[in-house]
């Protein structure tokens, strides 16, 4: 009986751990996600729009992971907003995140009405990815394009930490 109970508990723990590792918040409407651009506190927010099908996006992801590790004791929140296709979340996105050991928060935006919400992120954004929106309180910086190095990405974050 004890052995059976042990295996049942072990199985439940494994299933729960697997479910937690694969849970990604999916937003079908940008309006449900826009709260991440409206936080008024002393945290620096780094919001990167990317997709697994975007080579420059994938190339810069390690820099965001370095940022996550480098500043884990600071008030910084990194959110990677995936624009991957909804039908590929389980077959492409989740395996990619697991294979690359992505620790930053990842959310998926499947709202295909980008013409309605791109300007809400930044009025100068033409829609190409990657782009990154940094902000703290009312101060923000919008970077259109790929970061060439961790140091380049870190230098933008440091501007907010020095405030």
Task: Explain the overall architecture.
The structure is a single chain. The protein is an alpha/beta fold and 163 residues long. It has a single domain, classed as Glutaredoxin. The chain has six helices and six strands; from the N terminus they run αβαβαβαβαββα. The chain has a six-stranded mixed beta sheet with strand order 1-4-3-2-5-6. α4 links the parallel β3 and β4. The N and C termini lie far apart (61 Å). About 12% of the residues have low confidence.
Jot down its keywords.
single chain; 163 residues; alpha/beta; Glutaredoxin; six-stranded mixed sheet; 6 strands; 44% helix
Considering DSSP H and I runs of 4 or more, what fraction of the residues is helical? 40-55%
- Low-confidence segments: 4-22
- Number of structural units classed as domains: 1
Order of helices and strands, N to C? HEHEHEHEHEEH
| Structural class by SSE content | alpha/beta
For this structure, the CATH topology is: Glutaredoxin
CATH architecture: 3-Layer(aba) Sandwich
Shape: globular
In short:
The chain is an alpha/beta fold. Helix content is 44%, strand content 21%.
């Amino acid at each position: 009986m004890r052995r059976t109970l042990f295996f049942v508990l072990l199985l439940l723990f494994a299933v729960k751990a697997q479910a937690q590792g694969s849970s990604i918040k999916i937003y079908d409407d940008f309006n449900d996600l826009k709260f991440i651009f409206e936080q008024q506190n002393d945290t620096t927010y780094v919001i990167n729009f990317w997709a697994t099908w975007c080579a420059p996006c994938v190339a810069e992801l390690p820099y965001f992971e370095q940022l996550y590790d480098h500043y884990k004791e600071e008030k910084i929140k990194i959110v990677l907003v995936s624009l991957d296709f909804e039908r590929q979340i389980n077959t492409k996105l989740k395996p990619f995140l697991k294979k690359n050991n992505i620790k930053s928060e990842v959310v998926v935006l499947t709202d295909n009405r980008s013409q309605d919400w791109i300007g809400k992120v930044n009025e100068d954004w033409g829609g190409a990815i990657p782009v990154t929106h940094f902000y703290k309180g009312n101060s923000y910086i919008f970077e259109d394009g790929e970061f060439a190095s961790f140091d380049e990405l870190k230098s933008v974050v440091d501007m907010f930490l020095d405030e």
